[in-house]
């Protein structure tokens, strides 16, 4: 055997060992990146989930030929690996942590808040759907629902997510605006008596006011919402499967309304996805992460997508949704909605989808 062949044969193992070491180092670095935190959350496309199996209306019908689908966004704290991925991928975005969770709020608090908001959204969706179907719905404002507390303020460590403030200095506060009204005109250092309920039990506490960030007003440091008692004439069960946030309001209202109308199939055989908060008057509100929801709906085969529209907003959900739909080349039609009536009018204009043979 020639010397050249001996050299060639002995050099291959060295080269192989070098390649193995290279990939070993890469794997180690990737592993380390999983434990390096950042000050960001990463968002990605979630799922488009049919609401029919999730929602049951007493004496309602479930014979629709198509489906209404809520859409979700996958969100989590971004480690270094996800940070790098989000900067090179069109399917992931970064959000600064302080835009997702309040200072001093942990991930558990965030999950509780999102679930509480989802519960409230469900109740409002039920009220809207039953009213549209001609039923009497009773709505009573019960107080100011605590969705979170701010670090460094008196409410932190005293009030919890889910508590309901019912009075300030003995004056009832049925809505969040009433809380603001009772605190207006007061100054930093003043103390107020807060009456609140927790797990059905009433309690009182004295809290000292501080200047609110980026505001000329003082406050106790809470993220408020309206807690309402909504009484509907039939039982509705919603298995939300741990999904949080208010953005499924519109689609839940449509599904409930469809089940209440036993002689009508709103879907007409189509897969209909969408997003948007819902108010008691049926108004549809803006949400976050709509680009990811468009991608999720497209992947699930949706044919229509309802997107909140605000013509005065240059960055409205609808405009962003259309841009994303064009970018990914979907055949799904994006439909602008300002009110649930817009969605219903669009559906009524559609012809029944031919059955596939």
UniProtKB/TrEMBL annotation:
<dbReference type="InterPro" id="IPR036034">
    <property type="entry name" value="PDZ_sf"/>
</dbReference>
<dbReference type="InterPro" id="IPR008269">
    <property type="entry name" value="Lon_proteolytic"/>
</dbReference>
<keyword id="KW-1133">Transmembrane helix</keyword>
<keyword id="KW-0812">Transmembrane</keyword>
<keyword id="KW-0472">Membrane</keyword>
<dbReference type="GO" id="GO:0004252">
    <property type="term" value="F:serine-type endopeptidase activity"/>
</dbReference>
<feature type="domain" description="PDZ">
    <location>
        <begin position="133"/>
        <end position="200"/>
    </location>
</feature>
<dbReference type="GO" id="GO:0006508">
    <property type="term" value="P:proteolysis"/>
</dbReference>
<dbReference type="GO" id="GO:0030163">
    <property type="term" value="P:protein catabolic process"/>
</dbReference>
<protein>
    <submittedName>
        <fullName>PDZ domain-containing protein</fullName>
    </submittedName>
</protein>
<dbReference type="Pfam" id="PF05362">
    <property type="entry name" value="Lon_C"/>
</dbReference>
<dbReference type="InterPro" id="IPR014721">
    <property type="entry name" value="Ribsml_uS5_D2-typ_fold_subgr"/>
</dbReference>
<dbReference type="GO" id="GO:0004176">
    <property type="term" value="F:ATP-dependent peptidase activity"/>
</dbReference>
<feature type="transmembrane region" description="Helical">
    <location>
        <begin position="21"/>
        <end position="42"/>
    </location>
</feature>
<dbReference type="InterPro" id="IPR027065">
    <property type="entry name" value="Lon_Prtase"/>
</dbReference>
<dbReference type="InterPro" id="IPR001478">
    <property type="entry name" value="PDZ"/>
</dbReference>
<dbReference type="GO" id="GO:0005524">
    <property type="term" value="F:ATP binding"/>
</dbReference>
<dbReference type="InterPro" id="IPR020568">
    <property type="entry name" value="Ribosomal_Su5_D2-typ_SF"/>
</dbReference>
<dbReference type="Pfam" id="PF13180">
    <property type="entry name" value="PDZ_2"/>
</dbReference>
């Amino acid at each position: 055997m020639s010397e050249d062949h001996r050299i060639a044969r002995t050099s291959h193992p060295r080269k192989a060992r070098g390649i193995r070491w290279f990939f070993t180092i890469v794997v180690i670095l990737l592993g380390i990146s999983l434990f390096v935190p950042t000050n960001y959350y990463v968002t990605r496309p979630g799922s488009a989930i049919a609401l029919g199996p999730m929602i049951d209306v007493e004496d309602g019908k479930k014979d629709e030929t198509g489906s209404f689908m809520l859409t979700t966004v996958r969100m989590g704290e971004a480690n270094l690996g996800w940070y790098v991925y989000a900067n090179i991928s069109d399917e992931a975005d970064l959000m600064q942590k302080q835009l997702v969770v309040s200072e001093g709020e942990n991930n558990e608090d965030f999950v509780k808040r999102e679930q509480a908001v989802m519960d409230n959204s469900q109740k409002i969706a039920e009220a809207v759907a039953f009213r549209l179907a001609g039923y009497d719905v009773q709505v009573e404002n019960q107080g100011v629902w605590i969705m979170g507390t701010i670090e460094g303020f008196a409410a932190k460590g005293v009030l919890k997510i889910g508590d309901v403030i019912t009075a300030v200095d003995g004056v009832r506060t049925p809505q969040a605006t009433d809380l603001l009204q009772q605190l207006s005109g007061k100054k930093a250092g003043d103390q107020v008596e807060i009456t609140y309920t927790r797990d059905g039990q009433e309690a009182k506490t004295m809290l000292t006011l501080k200047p609110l960030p980026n505001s000329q007003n003082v406050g106790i440091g809470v993220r408020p919402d309206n807690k309402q008692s909504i009484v509907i004439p039939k039982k509705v069960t919603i298995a939300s499967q741990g999904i949080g946030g208010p953005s499924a309001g519109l689609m839940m209202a449509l599904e409930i309304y469809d089940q209440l109308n036993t002689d009508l199939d709103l879907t007409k055989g189509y897969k209909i996805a969408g997003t948007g908060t819902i108010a008691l008057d049926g108004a549809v509100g803006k949400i976050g992460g709509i680009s990811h929801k468009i991608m999720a709906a497209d992947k699930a085969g949706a044919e229509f997508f309802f997107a909140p529209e605000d013509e005065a907003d240059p960055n409205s959900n609808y405009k962003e949704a259309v841009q994303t739909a064009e970018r990914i080349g979907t055949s799904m039609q994006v439909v602008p909605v300002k009110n649930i009536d817009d969605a219903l009018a669009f559906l009524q204009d559609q012809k029944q989808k031919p059955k596939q043979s």
